[in-house]
Amino acid sequence: MFNFLKGDKSMVTATKIGASDTATKIGTSDTATANDIVKVSPEELVKRMVASNPNVMGKMPERRLKSIVRGTLVALAQEVNECQEGRLQVPGLGRITIRQTEVEKDGSPATVKRVMLNPAKPKPKV
Predict the structure, then answer these.
(1) Which domain of life is it from (predicted)?
(2) Could you give the CA distance from residue 68 to residue 113 in angstroms, rounded to a whole number?
(3) Would you kindly state where each structural domain of the chain is located, as residue ranges?
(4) CB of 17 closer than 8 Å to CB of 52
(5) What b-and-e string marks burial along 78-104, b requiring 16 or more CB atoms within 10 Å of the CB?
(6) What is the pairing mode between strands 108-119 and 94-105?
(7) Pairwise CA distance, residues 12 & 100, whole Å
(8) Rounded (10°) angle between helices 42-52 and 62-82
(9) What is the mean pLDDT of residues 27-52?
(10) 3-state class of 22 per DSSP?
């Protein structure tokens, strides 16, 4: 199942979109298939951060924290898009491996960029 679903199932706020493009909430009995897309918005990430650590915001407004998370995700996406090949290590997220591979489309060879994520392992609580 999804790495972010481990733990308290009541905190799950990701949205699963199936082939029929109908959005439904992920429950404990749902399983992902190859046609499913899981969307996690910055707002949902902020809610999850606050649920796991209520002091993470301090006196910062929630709107500003959402903006920071959104900006961080945009910067990470730009970094992945600019990198043609290699590895990116993102603390807390994991290692992103980017490769250019040759595939055959319609009988002609084409180069495809493959991006793979090896998620970071959670630190054990002591």
Answers:
(1) Bacteria
(2) 28
(3) 85-121
(4) no
(5) eeeeeeeeeebeeeeebebebeeeeee
(6) antiparallel
(7) 34
(8) 120
(9) 76
(10) coil
